[in-house]
């Protein structure tokens, strides 16, 4: 088989607003953002600074501004956030990573950088040769509470020849390892199975380069494991022979995958390549000796030649998969551990699959199988299955609290399952000659698919405007439903399918929901039937507050973004969610509040809640306070004030008689004020406004 590569026209220029949005990256994006305005809108302390990383702008002028932060000049890892602002610049929504807090009590470490490097090197050496390259004092805000830490980067090579650039966060006070992740994102792919293809090559003098007009180009490492490799050239612009007897063949598949991946993002999602700046990426082939893998290292793709150096790992879905790690890195930058690791890996499976369908290659048709051409198992089975991930023997079909503990290549299973069902629906069907049978989890209702094209766009918008580095499956559900509503409407089939598919993989309902729409007009009538006059009932009893234990997240409560959380840094009294006010260790004010109508016919009304407090303050001065208030029209009454003095880390119930407000609509408000140093946490749970 001869692969002919004609000099093609340049790929299309970026399609601005293909999803109703455009995107930019720093520094150009900085001109669109206003960090000073947003700093004030977010209520951040003077010790924190915002650093713009990207801006996505919708057609209506809404901006999604992605920020990193510094605290007292130190880089904050895991302190990233996405702020949504209206055309006027007003804050509309914010997606914080983890707790959203970035303050630490002190920026003076007890351990030295050399001590941290020694700990990190020992950790890295467990699976690879390693040497410490860099050590930087930072704030780690991606865990249960912010910690002063060293980020140590060690470089080495794993036993299977995969290079390693491991980031290890070492607690700057205790020396404990807080987190580690590798920059090298890898997976398994296939050899030359795309048949005869047309490539966009570049003429250079009397020869041709395997390089397109965008800047995607392919080099030959010739068995090496470092360097850029040698640019492929050819005298007649006819590349490879379809087998490994020609070194060019692997280069053809790699180049074809790079061009199709760029074209997919550009023409379908409106993203101008990995970095969204209109440039392509380098692909290196013939890496190492019989290296059965491929990886993205932050700047380029690298492919091994597979078992016996006879199966280069260059299938189009694998090229799309690995390069999509680059897109993730330059958008949400999802961690490669915990739930976020699974979301990261699944994102690459999702868009690798999307690229394969987009290429519409008759030799490697689109399917929901990952690495189906590899035969890595020796029995013709693919590496992963999106319709039923558990068929690989290790990936879960359903999300659970244990998902975060799995390797990202397996914790990705639940989101892959979501993507398949949201696109195609549950149950048995045949697509492009492949039979699928996708089950729902836990007795969930069957899912009707909305079409792959719509769901791809929903997930890209979620990745680029909703998720942060430490996002969870719960964040993914909320973000995807919000994105579906923004793109297609709250009553659309796409929104319904997206929501139903998350339910079908057992991700609990969150704050975002689709809308079933208005009640339809009965057949045969011109107007809806009138709503009957309700029969009078006795005054309501029990709890008048909605979402009283916060288990639905930030639903029904308004105020500052962030306090209502399932962050495990402070325990909930019951369930997983609570309102964690304070705990910043810096000047801040936080509120949560809810309006409630107390019927005039009740005989008694009692406001109650459970409170847990802890502090780093000392002495008898009230530096940090939380007030419990009732707002009646223009009158605010403080029922109680709690402070750092006399804190109690055991949940205690507080109760107040509010019968005097019967017949009125009041606002129940919790107001926290914290001074410039040392934290106090006021944790509220299981609220109630009971009547009788």
In short:
The protein is α+β, with helices and mostly antiparallel strands and 692 residues long.
Are there runs of 5+ residues with pLDDT below 50, and where? 1-31, 186-191, 518-541
Number of strands: 35
- Major sheet attributes: 9 strands, mixed
If you compute it from the alpha carbons, what radius of gyration comes out, rounded to the nearest whole angstrom?
28 Å
Strand content: 25-35%
SS content category: alpha+beta
Silhouette = globular
Q: What do the pLDDT scores average to?
A: 85
**Individual helix count:** 10
Q: What is the end-to-end distance? A: 83 Å
Helix-residue proportion: 10-25%
How would you portray this structure in words?
Strands 2, 3, 4, 5, 6, 7, 8, 9 and 10 form a 9-stranded mixed beta sheet that branches. Strands 11-19-20-18-14-15 form a 6-stranded mixed beta sheet, covered by helices on one side. The chain is built from 10 helices and 35 strands. With 692 residues, it is an alpha+beta fold. Helices cover 20% and strands 30% of the residues. The chain is globular and about 90 Å long. A hairpin with a 5-residue loop joins β8 and β9. α3 crosses α4, α4 packs across α5 and α9 packs antiparallel against α10. The N terminus is likely disordered.
């Amino acid at each position: 088989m001869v692969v002919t590569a004609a000099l093609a026209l340049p790929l299309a220029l970026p399609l601005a607003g293909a999803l109703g949005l455009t995107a930019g990256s720093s520094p150009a994006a900085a001109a669109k953002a206003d960090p000073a305005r947003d700093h004030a809108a977010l209520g951040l302390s003077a010790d924190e600074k915002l650093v713009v990383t990207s801006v996505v702008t919708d057609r209506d002028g809404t901006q999604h501004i992605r920020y990193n932060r510094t605290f007292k000049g130190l880089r904050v890892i895991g302190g990233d956030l996405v702020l949504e602002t209206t055309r006027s610049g007003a804050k509309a929504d914010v997606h914080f990573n983890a707790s959203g807090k970035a303050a630490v009590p002190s920026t003076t470490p007890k351990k030295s950088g050399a001590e941290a490097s020694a700990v990190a090197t020992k950790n890295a050496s467990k699976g690879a040769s390693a040497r410490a390259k860099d050590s930087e004092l930072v704030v780690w805000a991606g865990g249960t509470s912010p910690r002063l830490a060293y980020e140590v980067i060690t470089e080495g090579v794993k036993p299977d020849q995969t290079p390693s650039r491991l980031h290890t966060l070492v607690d700057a006070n205790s020396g404990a390892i807080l987190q580690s992740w590798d920059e090298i994102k890898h997976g398994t792919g296939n050899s030359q199975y795309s048949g005869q293809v047309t490539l966009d090559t570049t003429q250079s003098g009397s020869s041709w380069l395997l390089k397109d007009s965008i800047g995607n180009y392919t080099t030959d490492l010739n068995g090496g494991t470092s360097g850029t490799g040698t640019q492929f050239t050819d005298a007649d612009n006819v590349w490879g022979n379809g087998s490994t007897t020609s070194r060019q063949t692997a280069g053809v598949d790699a180049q074809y995958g790079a061009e199709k991946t760029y074209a997919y993002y550009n023409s379908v999602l409106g993203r101008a390549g990995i970095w969204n700046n209109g440039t392509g990426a380098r692909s290196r082939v013939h890496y190492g000796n019989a290296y059965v893998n491929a990886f993205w290292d932050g700047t380029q793709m690298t492919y091994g030649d597979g078992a016996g150096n006879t199966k280069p790992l260059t299938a189009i879905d694998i090229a799309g998969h690995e390069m999509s790690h680059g897109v993730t890195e330059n958008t949400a930058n999802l961690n490669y551990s915990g739930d976020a690791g699974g979301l990261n890996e699944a994102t690459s499976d999702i868009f690798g699959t999307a690229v394969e369908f987009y290429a519409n290659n008759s030799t490697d048709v689109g399917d929901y199988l990952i690495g189906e051409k590899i035969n890595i198992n020796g029995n013709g089975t693919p590496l992963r299955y999106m319709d039923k991930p558990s068929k690989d023997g290790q990936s879960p079909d359903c999300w659970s609290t244990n998902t975060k503990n799995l390797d990202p290549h397996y914790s990705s299973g639940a989101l892959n399952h979501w993507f398949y069902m949201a696109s195609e629906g549950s149950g048995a069907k045949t697509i492009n000659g492949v039979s699928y049978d996708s089950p729902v989890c836990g007795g969930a209702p069957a899912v009707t698919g909305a079409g792959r094209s719509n769901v791809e766009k929903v997930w890209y918008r979620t990745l680029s405007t909703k998720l942060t580095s430490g996002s969870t499956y719960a964040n993914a559900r909320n973000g995807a439903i919000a994105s579906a509503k923004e793109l297609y409407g709250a009553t659309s089939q796409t929104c319904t399918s997206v929501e139903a598919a998350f339910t079908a993989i057992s991700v609990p309902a969150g704050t975002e929901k689709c809308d079933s729409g208005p009640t339809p007009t009965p057949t045969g009538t011109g107007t809806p039937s009138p709503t009957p006059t309700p029969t009078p009932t006795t005054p309501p009893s029990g709890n008048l507050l909605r979402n009283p234990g916060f288990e639905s997240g930030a639903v029904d409560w308004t105020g500052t973004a962030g306090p209502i959380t399932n962050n495990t840094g402070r325990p909930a009294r019951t369930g997983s969610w609570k309102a964690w006010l304070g705990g910043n260790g810096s000047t801040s004010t936080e509120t949560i509040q809810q309006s409630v109508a107390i019927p005039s016919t009740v005989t008694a009304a009692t406001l109650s809640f459970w409170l847990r407090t802890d502090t780093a303050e000392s002495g008898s001065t009230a530096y940090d306070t939380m007030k419990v208030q009732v707002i009646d029209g223009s009158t605010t009454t403080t029922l109680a004030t709690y402070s750092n003095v006399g804190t109690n880390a055991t949940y205690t119930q507080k109760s107040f008689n509010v019968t005097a407000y019967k017949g009125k609509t009041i606002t129940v408000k919790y107001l926290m004020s914290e001074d410039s140093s040392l934290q106090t946490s006021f944790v509220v749970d299981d609220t109630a406004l009971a009547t009788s």
